[in-house]
Amino acid sequence: MIHDLLPMTNVFAIALKQKQYKTYVLSDETANSTLEVVPERGGIATSWLVEGKEILYLDTERFTNPDLTVRGGVPILFPICGNLPDNTYTHKGVQWQLKQHGFARDLPWTVEEMVTDGCAAVTLMLESSDKTLAVYPFDFQLAFTYQIKGNALEIFQRYTNLSEEPMPFSSGLHPYFLAEDKSQLRFEIPGMQYRDQNTHSKGYFTGVFDPNLDEIDVSFDELTGLAATVTDSARDLRLTLSYSSSYGKLVFWMLKGKDFYCLEPWTAPRNALNTGEHLMYLPPGATCEMLVRMTATFL
Fold first, then answer.
1. Is 104 in contact with 289 (CB distance < 8 Å)?
2. What Pfam families does the record point to (predicted)?
3. How buried is 170 (Cβ within 10 angstroms: 0-12 exposed, 13-18 middle, 19+ buried)?
4. Is 106 left (phi over 0), alpha (psi -120 to 50) or beta?
5. d(CA 169, CA 276)
6. d(CA 111, CA 261)
7. How far is CA 278 from CA 105, 111, 247, in A?
8. How far is Cα 182 from Cα 213, in angstroms, rounded to an integer?
């Protein structure tokens, strides 16, 4: 059963669906578009329908098990992207432990604001706590706003350093896009060369990835533009992913036999907390903002 939280204004509404987790359902009824967001499961968006058709992939078995990380939807990566050697980094001569992709995707977020005027939007917040300070010695506040209108999903991000020293971090999103026939995918990515995350070899991109490989995990580290486009001929779907200039790389990940591919904007590469490569340093009391926008057009 769905209980309205806010009165409907024009075509936009937000409702609450009580499943295993409380799920906020944003809708644009004219466009037949909805977005489902689950604050307590890492602030994740789990479903995005455009013209009534699902854009995202979700492994529901993993999602319902709180001991497992979510494989699907749009997980949030903070304060690192990727993994660290032995899950370890050093700050001021002290070693700290931080698992792959950080903790934001595993912690409960709180709902701060909802809007149904001109769009459907919900703002979630994550703040530092004893749990985060045990692995990352900085006080912070994150505010993510999910907004849908028509065939577009926008994710506004605000990062605030509440510490008394500069806060090093990287951030990213890890969207899983549904694709049942990956042989029909064509990519326009603003980068000619990629680096294989496993072999560290480099290759030149031709617009397609081989769906018969067991795994593809590559990073486009030298981007020449702020948008990538994927055409899925099997679904007559064109998906565009655009992002702020803070996102300096795109990671592509795909597994054989799974109906998804991931195209992930990252601000920094793996192990940036140790190497400092493209790491962001936010001054005390400062805030920075970023935006990722996705549009899904059925041809």
1. no
2. Aldose_epim
3. buried
4. alpha
5. 9
6. 29
7. 22, 31, 10
8. 11
